[in-house]
Amino acid sequence: MQSQEEQPILSIERLNVWYGKKQILKDLTFDIYPKQVTAFIGPSKCGKTAFVRCLNRLNDLQHDFRYKGNIHFNGNDINDPKTKSTDIAQKIGMIFPKPIPLQRSIYEDVAYSARIRGIKQPERLGYIVERSLSNAQLWDEAAENLDASPKTLSISQQQRLCIARALAANPDIIIFDEPCEQLDAAETPKLEAIIQNLKSDYTIIFVTNKRRQAARVSDVAGFLYDGELVEYGQTEEIFTNPKDERTENYVTGRLG
Amino acid sequence: MQNYLESELKSLQHQLLKMGGIAENMLRDAIQSIQEQDEDLALRVIAIDDTVDKLENEIEEKCIQLIARHQPVAFELRFLTMTLKINRNIERLADKCVSIARRSLELMTFPPIQGAIDLQPVTQLIQQMVNDAFDALVNRNADLAKALRERDNKVDEIYEKMMQDLCSILIDQPQRIQSGFGNLLLYRHLERIGDLAANIGEEVYYLVKGEVIRHSDL
Amino acid sequence: MNMSYPIILCLTCLILLVTLYLILDNRHNTVLEESDLIDHEILTDPIYSLQDKINSMLPILIVSILIGIVFAVLLQEWVPAESWIYRISDFIIAILAGIPSVFYGLLCVYYFLLKSGRVSYLTQSLTVVLLTMPIAFQSTQNAVKSVDVSIREAVYALGVKKSKVITAHVLPHAYSGIMSGVYTAVSRSFFVAGLILVTFTWTIHSRASFSIPKNASVFLIAALLCSLCSSLLKKQSVNTDYPA
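^ inputs. structure came back:
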């Protein structure tokens, strides 16, 4: 992480976040580099989800959301009033814990996000749908019945459909917010493999409360505790030789 | 779709075999340097040891990372613990080769003893053993791995025999005592290499069968 | 919502009740004399002319339901729940929706009609709006509110504009809730229309005086009280039932 000469894709400076009167995030300052899996771990309610929601401005939906500090995405302040939140959301995709199909057919569901960015030609849409579905490892299972309702898919397949939909929007960053929450344990490795494959083309931010999963999947990990970024560094470092006692306690399972 | 850990383990084994290959070459060169009194070869063996040390560190770190990140079980766990141990054994094997090369350089400076003992049987045997140990690892061949222990006993027998022979030679030629001491240490190193090959064999057996045969009767 | 909210609501409720009681009490002995309405069209052809009037109210009915729906969506989606506009609108609508439909009918007949002596287009329209708009508003508001927040988030996260999120995703999901409100509103207005027709026909045919006896007004006021309480308390819970 530090060794890389590359420019950070996201740089967070002194970010403080409040929901109502409660401070959720305290003074976060760090950089996220492209083409890596950056995981955020921590006990529930530690502010992981609140943090990633700042990145794609989903927190704007929260009426009592307040923030202080800067988030720069490729050098542009994402909270700048001149920056459109829809543009940010298109560049920073998000996968939620619960898969939510939005359209009547699998094809339309994936094509939907491509249509949003103005693609209308049927051949291009078809190409994007196929590529997105294969990147999400759903093409083999769904190619036969693209016109079927997404509700006919299993939860795991629906989650992969959501990944395909996010990919079809052509994002730079994809946020996975506890994507395996609703999945069978047996389906988890598949999703982890997808994330590993995607990291060559996208920057991945991965939020999980399963430390083992973060250890398996991520290159860089951050440990959030009570709104503070206790430790941030190479995953190996965090899991073999953490600097902070709280991190040590968390990764060994004594905390949270 | 290959499991991420699986591919990591493959590359780890690849690295381990690469290190083994280097050690094997070192052994061959060290023995050759004794037999042909080749100073350059001996120096080269000593120089290459750094690479092995570096590889050892790399492999060890990688193993610890994989254990920390994937918390492996069953075969994967056996593979990683075995890799850690074989890694250590290979490094020691390389160290022995360096010692042999050092002895070889030293022996070149002394006048040789008359009617010296033939090294051929023991060097051939240990080279074959090291080679078979890596073969057993690649092919997951438990029988070949287990057989190494018996072959190590053979090495020990030859070693005893060589010591006795050396002893009787030195009684006749007490003025060659320096060279005699050098030879003594050399035999010891060669014998130790047989032990290391047998150790690797035991680890491979554990990997394949999941059973510890170290310290057990044959 | 803080604890003072229900207390304020109950007080307002009481004030409203007292006012209504006074109105009814002052006029409960008012008699619809023949002479009062002698030159009135109702007498000449009561049923048909009323039927006519009610038919002419249909466009008003539709418009008022639509206004209720649009107003609810705008308020719910664009006005923050803490702002005073939201609070006041919410409060007024809760009270209007809580008043039993029969009161609107009676007020229309008793207060507007008898006091002004003629049925004006404005009076009728106002009654229809008061009858239907709050119900349409409340059911739309509840339906929109109850759309799973994760659907919105999933769509926002794809970079869809807010107006599109609401028209293309929130409203379709709220459709059944909104339609249930529409039917309730329509049924309320038809019910009142029917009630007025029955009462008038009976009054005119029997030549009896049109008045509300004191014991009936007690029941009516009790009904009003219960209805209002139910409506206001419902605002406190997350229940999405609609008042009948």
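Chains B and C do not touch (no CB pair under 8 Å). Chain B has a mean pLDDT of 89.
thumbs up if we can close this ticket
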